From TrEMBL:
The keyword Aminoacyl-tRNA synthetase does not apply. This is Homoserine kinase. PANTHER family: HOMOSERINE KINASE, HOMOSERINE/4-DIPHOSPHOCYTIDYL-2-C-METHYL-D-ERYTHRITOL KINASE. Residues 197-270 form the GHMP kinase C-terminal domain. HAMAP family: Homoser_kinase. Belongs to the GHMP kinase family. Homoserine kinase subfamily. It comes from Salinirubrum litoreum. Keywords: Amino-acid biosynthesis, ATP-binding, Cytoplasm, Kinase, Nucleotide-binding, Threonine biosynthesis, Transferase.
Length: 291
C-alpha cells in the first residue's frame, strides 16, 4: 500500500486567473492505493456523500487510466467538494503521485501534473492544472501554455470557507468574455507584483498584487457576504484578499502574528451576512507527500 497526503490549494489568487496557484498546509486529502485487477474507489470524509465512486466519474479513475495503473483507491477527504480549495485536484494529485510510486512509473513531479489534469477534466470539463500543479509541486506555481514554474514560497494564509456551495462550472459561466485594455493592463501589473512578492516571500508585496478588476468582481457576486468579509480581513491586517479559485472560500494573505485576528474577522463577516463559516489558519506549503 502507498499512502499520500495531498494538500488543499487556492488557484487564481485574483490577478492570475487560470495560471497562478498555491498549496496550503491544511486541509488535505489522504489517498491510499493498492494494486488491483481493476480500479475501484472508496470515499470517506468531508462531503464524501456527494462524490461518485464510479471510476468513470471520479477524478482518480481518470488518473489511474492515464497511468495504466489499476488499483483500489481509498480517498479520505479533508478538502470539502465545491469549496474553492481544490478538492478534486487534491484527490487527482494524490492519486497521481501514489500510483506513480505504486507502479514505479518513474515520472517526475512535473510530468505528473498533466496526468492529474486529466482527472480535473472529469469535474470541470477541461484539463486545468492551476490547482493540480501546486498540489503536486507545492509552493506558488505558474502554469501557462504547458510551461510550469514553481516557487517555494512560505507565508501565512487564512482560508475562510462558508457553508455555501459554488460549483466550478457555475463560477466559470460568470467570467466576462471581454475586458477593457485598462483592466488588462492593471491585471498584468498586479500579476507581476504578486509574482515578485511570492519570489521574495513578502506578504505585503504579494497581497498588493492580488487585486483583479475582471474575474474576481464577477465571482464575488456568487458569495454571500464577500465584501464584508474582505473589508474585515483587510482591517484586521490581511495584506491581500480574494476569492479562492471558483469560491466560495475566501483567501487572505497575512503577516506572521495576525492570522488569528484575520481569521476571526472573516468568520464574523460571514456571520453578519447570516452564513456559517470556518477559517483555516494555514500557510503556503509543500505539495503531495508520500508517507
Amino acid at each position: 500500500m502507498i499512502t499520500v497526503r495531498a494538500p488543499a490549494t487556492s488557484a487564481n489568487l485574483g490577478s492570475g486567473f487560470d495560471v497562478f496557484g498555491v498549496a496550503l498546509d491544511r486541509p488535505a486529502d489522504v489517498i491510499r492505493v493498492e494494486k488491483a485487477p481493476r480500479t475501484t474507489i472508496s470515499v470517506t470524509g468531508a462531503g464524501s456523500q456527494y462524490i461518485p465512486e464510479d471510476p468513470d466519474k471520479n477524478t482518480v479513475g481518470a488518473v489511474a487510466e492515464a497511468l495504466d495503473a489499476p488499483a483500489h483507491i481509498d480517498i479520505d477527504k479533508g478538502v470539502r467538494p465545491a469549496s474553492g480549495l481544490g478538492s478534486s485536484a487534491a484527490s487527482a494529485a494524490g492519486a497521481a503521485v501514489a500510483l506513480n510510486a505504486l507502479y514505479d512509473r518513474g515520472l517526475s513531479r512535473e510530468e505528473l501534473v498533466p496526468v492529474a489534469g486529466e482527472g480535473e477534466a472529469v469535474v470541470s470539463g477541461e484539463a486545468h492544472v492551476d490547482n493540480v500543479a501546486p498540489a503536486i509541486l507545492g509552493g506558488f506555481t505558474i502554469a501557462s501554455g504547458g510551461d510550469l514554474t514553481a516557487v517555494r514560497a512560505r507565508m501565512p494564509v487564512v482560508a475562510c470557507l462558508p457553508e455555501i456551495a459554488v460549483s466550478t462550472r457555475d463560477a466559470r459561466r460568470v467570467v466576462p468574455t471581454q475586458a477593457s485594455i485598462e483592466d488588462v493592463v492593471e491585471t498584468v501589473g498586479n500579476a507581476a507584483t504578486l509574482t515578485a512578492g511570492m519570489c521574495r516571500n513578502d506578504p505585503k508585496l504579494a497581497g498588493k498584487g492580488m487585486d483583479d478588476p475582471v474575474v474576481t468582481p464577477a465571482r464575488a457576486e456568487l458569495i454571500t457576504g464577500y465584501e464584508t468579509v474582505r473589508e474585515g480581513a483587510l482591517a484586521a491586517g490581511a495584506t491581500g484578499v480574494t476569492v479562492s479559485g471558483a469560491g466560495p472560500a475566501v483567501l487572505a494573505l497575512c503577516r506572521e502574528g495576525n492570522r488569528r485576528k484575520v481569521a476571526r474577522e472573516m468568520v464574523e463577516g460571514f456571520a453578519d451576512a447570516g452564513v456559517e463559516a470556518r477559517a483555516y489558519q494555514t500557510r503556503i506549503g509543500p505539495g503531495a507527500e508520500l508517507f
